[in-house]
């Protein structure tokens, strides 16, 4: 049993489940919220559901709420905004704090942190939609092909394209800038794709992702039944351990707390390269973190309870710091 699971277990709580919103990941967020609500209700908690697309979170009465469970993906949910509102209202909430959420949501800010903390990640260049085509082509040539073109702030691989030649660059940029005015050109790393869930300091079993598509894109994540998720593989154990260590170090560099998920490429030399840190990973019945938790014998209810207990513990620490006891 996870160490977070015991504390607060016997007390029925009033939990606000926040999901939906207006980001491009609204539908996935609603599914996560439904899954979380169902799991917490099964434990006897009282659930109130909040959708920021329908209600103004900033003006809600939070007094009847013991803890907020953030199941919002994308902008407003993962970028520190809802976290700031809840913090101002002194409401305990799941997941990372304001600063870590902001950093993790920006791929370029994350990469700066990775560089500062010696976390391996692919070389990249930050670009803007106002940049001249000539400048972007120069930057791309300097990095070399194949390249990944991706929005700076977006989840679920939306707007991401892998390109093999300069002729593919204009279409990839157009797709990227549909989602954000900033984007990244990143050297594509050839290797196997992995994801590692973490609940505070505990790493969940790493999952190797296999897809017949060019990479683990939106369709592979949510629509392609042929995508395969493997816990056992022919990869040497020390290589897998490096993946977990890189994921743990990436979370430490960003400063995450509670539940997070780190996406990693293990290159052909057995070296991990961190792609990104997700501070509000998907929590549907088919999402990767619940799959990894189940590998440890944790049900969805166990996982959600662990997130709630972690949130209450972190809230106590923040309160102690505010009062000068921390």
Report the portion of residues in β strands.
15-25%
Number of domains: 3
Radius of gyration: 20 Å
Outline type: globular
Measured between the Cα atoms of the first and last residue, the distance is: 29 Å
Kindly identify the CATH topology of the largest domain: Rossmann fold
Q: What share of residues is helical?
A: 25-40%
Characterize the biggest β-sheet: 6 strands, antiparallel
Structural class, from secondary structure content?
A: alpha+beta
Question: Unreliable stretches, pLDDT < 50, 5 or more residues?
Answer: 1-8
Order of helices and strands: HEHEEHHHEHEEHEEEEHEHEEHH
Examine the secondary-structure arrangement and name the CATH architecture of the largest domain: 3-Layer(aba) Sandwich
Give the tally of β-strands: 13
Number of helices: 11
**Mean pLDDT across every amino acid position:** 91
Look at the structure and give the CATH class of the largest domain. Answer: Alpha Beta
What is this structure's SSE topology?
Blueprint: H1 3-6, E1 14-18, H2 26-42, E2 46-50, E3 67-70, H3 81-88, H4 98-105, H5 107-116, E4 124-128, H6 133-143, E5 147-151, E6 161-163, H7 169-177, E7 182-187, E8 191-199, E9 202-203, E10 207-210, H8 218-222, E11 228-230, H9 237-254, E12 259-267, E13 272-278, H10 288-295, H11 300-322
Parallel strand pairs: 1-2, 1-3
Antiparallel strand pairs: 4-7, 5-6, 5-7, 8-9, 8-10, 8-12, 10-11, 12-13
Task: Report on this structure.
It is a single chain. The chain has 326 residues and is an alpha+beta fold. The chain has three domains: 3-95 and 292-322, Rossmann fold (3-Layer(aba) Sandwich), CATH 3.40.50.20; 104-120 and 189-279, D-amino Acid Aminotransferase, Chain A, domain 1 (2-Layer Sandwich); 124-187, ATP-grasp fold, A domain (Dna Ligase, domain 1, 2-Layer Sandwich), CATH 3.30.1490. 37% of the residues lie in helices and 21% in strands. The chain contains eleven helices and 13 strands. Strands 8, 9, 10, 11, 12 and 13 form a six-stranded antiparallel β-sheet that branches. It has a four-stranded antiparallel β-sheet with strand order 4-7-5-6, with helices on one face. Strands 2-1-3 form a three-stranded parallel β-sheet, covered by helices on one side. The longest helix is centred in the last third of the chain and has 23 residues, at 300-322. Mean pLDDT is 91; it is low at 1-8.
């Amino acid at each position: 049993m996870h160490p977070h699971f015991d504390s607060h277990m016997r007390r029925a709580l009033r939990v606000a489940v926040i999901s939906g919103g207006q980001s491009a990941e609204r539908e996935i967020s609603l599914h996560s919220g439904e899954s979380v609500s169902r799991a917490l209700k099964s434990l006897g908690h009282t659930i109130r559901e909040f959708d920021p697309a329908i209600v103004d979170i900033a003006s809600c009465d939070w007094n009847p709420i013991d803890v907020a469970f953030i199941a919002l993906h994308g902008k407003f949910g993962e970028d520190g905004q809802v976290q700031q509102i809840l913090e101002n209202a002194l409401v305990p909430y799941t997941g990372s704090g304001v600063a870590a959420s902001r950093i993790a949501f920006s791929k370029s800010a994350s990469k700066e942190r990775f560089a500062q903390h010696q976390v391996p990640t692919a070389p990249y260049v930050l670009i803007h939609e106002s940049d001249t085509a000539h400048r972007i082509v120069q930057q791309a040539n300097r990095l070399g092909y194949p390249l990944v073109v991706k929005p700076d702030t977006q989840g679920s691989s939306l707007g991401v394209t892998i390109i093999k030649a300069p002729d593919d660059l204009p279409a990839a940029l157009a797709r990227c800038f549909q989602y954000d005015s900033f984007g990244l050109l990143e050297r594509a790393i050839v290797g196997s794709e992995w994801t590692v869930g973490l609940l505070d300091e505990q790493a969940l079993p790493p999952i190797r992702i296999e897809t017949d598509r060019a990479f683990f894109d939106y369709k592979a994540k949510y629509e392609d039944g042929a995508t395969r998720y493997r816990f056992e593989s022919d990869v040497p154990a020390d290589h897998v351990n490096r993946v977990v260590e890189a994921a743990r170090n990436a979370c430490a560099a960003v400063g995450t707390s509670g539940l997070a998920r780190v996406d990693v490429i293990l290159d052909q030399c057995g070296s991990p390269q961190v792609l990104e840190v997700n501070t509000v990973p998907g929590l549907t019945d088919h999402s990767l973190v619940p799959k990894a938790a189940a590998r440890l014998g944790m049900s969805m209810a166990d996982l959600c309870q662990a997130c709630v207990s972690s949130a209450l513990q972190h809230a106590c620490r923040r309160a102690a710091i505010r009062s000068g006891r921390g």
